[in-house]
Amino acid sequence: MRPYRSPPIMPMLPISFTVNDRPTETTCAPGGSLLRLLRSEGWAGVHQVCESGDCGSCTVWVDGQPVHSCLYPALRAQGKAITTIEGVAQDGQLSPMQSAFLDHQGFQCGFCTPGMILSCTALETTDEAEIRAAMDGNMCRCTGYQTIVESVVAAKNGHAQPTPVTTSGVGQSVPKQDGPKIVTGQPIYTGDWAPPATLHMQVLRSPHSHARIRSIDTTKAQALPGVQLVLTHQDVPRIAYSTAGHGEPVPDPHDHYLLDAKLRFVGDRVAAVVADSAAIATRACELIEVDYEVLPAVLDPLQAIGDKLREAWPEDLPVCEHPPLVHDEPESYQIADAAHNISGKVTLGAGDVATGLAEAEIVLTHTYHLPACQHFHLEPHACTTWLDEDGILVVRSSTQVPFYCQNLLCKLFELPKEKVRVYKPNIGGGFGNKQDML
To answer: Do residues 133 and 73 lie in contact, with contact meaning Cβ atoms separated by under 8 Å?
Structure first.
């Protein structure tokens, strides 16, 4: 089933081309990318990730040449022949490169694989160093690239012989069960399918590190044609919760709200808009008028804990006596020390630590500074929800913790568990980041 095509917010222009030898006549937005056009036409194997030409997951062939379709203007495809991963296999037979990726397990989550196969097929070398250099524009977090290189070498040397799928795994290497779907670009990820007439949500986010909302006016946003709903903190229950995907009892600080009058970081949620298309929802967010009371912010973690620094830190550092508080509510919400902006504390030890330190010949004390780190999964966070004919809230989400998602949704919206079903399709990478519920 093809994804629902959202109503446009700007005049659309006619365009005709072929996709995998199929004549196509459609319309596209001025300035729109070939990536978005192809996905709107139902070609799910063209994956939408960075949209800046960095990852290669959107690679297609235009007149036989691989391009990053996220950077390729859709209107330039007029009259051209486009090949996506869905068009690589011929007459039910996988191409040598597809077979090699199956045989040598050149993928894990598989989100990068369609772009990888299209880029690798265009290579004309079997030298490992040259392959790695040529594939610089295609990223993979899962594999470490070695199995990808082995797949390319095998395909180019004519050694691609996929292992037959077997029902018995005893004494044999069993191929990845969803491997054929991955190498042919079938729609197996969260964003590859949505029910007809799906609406789109966009979130207005805070431009300030620390602020309160004095007032918020959504009149103009609600009046925009195509907008179905605008939500602010006044429309949702104020229930503190943790986004970390751990089981009950949740050990993590309850430091989030669906929407709140206080904003605690740049990007914090201010309002949510539901509209007929993503473009309309984005425009509606721009029409929301917010009066912010900007509050003081401390961006250094050591300064943020205030006078607690004297007893917690061995170094002689200047102390911020009265730092702004991230959470100044009277409730604790399982936050370890809200008065000092300490969300949690972890202590590791065995035996009598004080005695051990006193008797030690050497005591080493050091301060470690770690940079921010992103898990870097290629598939973005994605979620589609609907009410089925039995009134059950169905949540199709790229999550590593479907049962935790169910538990939290039941808590936030006061629903019994039998009324919430969380469905997890294939995940295009997670690495713990999709254990966090956004």
So the answer is: no
